[in-house]
Amino acid sequence: xxxxxxxxxxxxxxxxxxxxxxxxxxxxxxxxxxxxxxxxxxxxxxxxxxxxxxxxxxxxxxxxxxxxxxxxxxxxxxxxxxxxxxxxxxxxxxxxxxxxxxxxxxxxxxxxxxxxxxxxxxxxxxxxxxxxxxxxxxxxxxxxxxxxxxxxxxxxxxxxxxxxxxxxxxxxxxxxxxxxxxxxxxxxxxxxxxxxxxxxxxxxxxxxxxxxxxxxxxxxxxxxxxxxxxxxxxxxxxxxxxxxxxxxxxxxxxxxxxxxxxxxxxxxxxxxxxxxxxxxxxxxxxxxxxxxxxxxxxxxxxxxxxxxxxxxxxxxxxxxxxxxxxxxxxxxxxxxxxxxxxxxxxxxxxxxxxxxxxxxxxxxxxxxxxxxxxxxxxxxxxxxxxxxxxxxxxxxxxxxxxxxxxxxxxxxxxxxxxxxxxxxxxxxxxxxxxxxxxxxxxxxxxxxxxxxxxxxxxxxxxxxxxxxxxxxxxxxxxxxxxxxxxxxxxxxxxxxxxxxxxxxxxxxxxxxxxxxxxxxxxxxxxxxxxxxxxxxxxxxxxxxxxxxxxxxxxxx
Length: 556
What we know:
By secondary structure, the chain is mainly beta. It has three helices and 45 strands. Strands 2, 5, 7, 8, 9, 11, 12, 14 and 15 form a nine-stranded antiparallel beta sheet that branches. An eight-stranded mixed beta sheet has the order 1-25-22-21-27-28-19-18, with no helix packed on it. A hairpin with a 4-residue loop joins strand 34 (about 450-455) and strand 35. The longest helix has 14 residues, at about 120-135.
């Protein structure tokens, strides 16, 4: 929710030499109750041990649950955490793989992903639906009376299906009505006495909001320019640093629940200016349609290996509900040359914390920040077309006002259209661009074989014929062109790890499949002309079928 305050109210918010910018002040809900009363049991045996926790920064999304360690073992039993019923089942070659959704009477839905296989009763239910629709990939929404469950009932077994990098259980708790995934650690108190660690504090120059730039990096306790003393879990800067007159903060920090545990996300961050709350966020709940805000909330740190910077300021198109306070959208503007005190606290859900206190000042007085001219508003839809292309940018596609540069050079060899070059900020987009290109030199009866690609990465963007052009979508900028997709996917028999081997007298059939451009869309296996329930594993590009008591011999 956004509100605008009157000029009088804004003046009351001034802190010493801090001046409020022209952007709206954002008001957020009061602090969420940290722990939620419940009677849930653990979804697997033993104490919860985390491979990954809620809100972790992943490619184009925040982690929506917790990953529970299974010590790289498959087929450990998974239990329903409370009475309820299976309200959704999905079997997919990507994403969550084999996943169950269980609705409980208290208004929550628990989610159990990447399963190796379901319990017998659920597996039989799913198998019947797959056979009826003759498809391995399936999504089912059982009626409440069809798959009733009791608390502690085994519902499946841990695995590595879908987009998983090793055996584990991905576990979520969602609000039933809103479908928002909540932080599961609000429902389970784990044994955690280890404080998070702040690796670095980053100072951004915010004069150009389209591309904020880090101009100072401070590593508490390991910085050659600024010295710190350590008092308990608090770092105190001894000298004073000069900062840009309009700046934003970023932090790199991690948390572990044990001294040798996995490097996980911190639960919350607080920033105070001269003892007054300025920025505060906690990872309580992020809706799926807000997940791509991760691209403006975070970025890779060049100075800290494999760690992400979490920005403590907001982009123009950013509505992350984790923020409880974001005065002036997290932007600091120092109008005077006085010394101000910044206090940054990171903490886990159990209240263990680490603190950095820094002395900062501006080197010269400033009336207002100087913004670079922006050509277009990120909040509005924008489109452009010519004889050779059509481009539609939906509202809120970019994270900040942007200056997109468009070029349409002549056709090049191996492409069936002129190039469309879109240059601008390299941050992935919040929404997809609609790109339509006019075929040049292509036969009209082959239009359905044309597709849009990004030429640098050879990424497939789609190929729909629309009003004489070929349309695709992209969530990144780049150079786009039309190419033919006329090569069929390849398939080769695999037995004992060998290609093109004899598959007779085997207990299972396995095939290596691949495609040169658009990827595998659908697959189907038949024996004696009858569909069989084969599986596709995208991680090794294989389709396999295991014979069982109901299988018969025959010809593929």
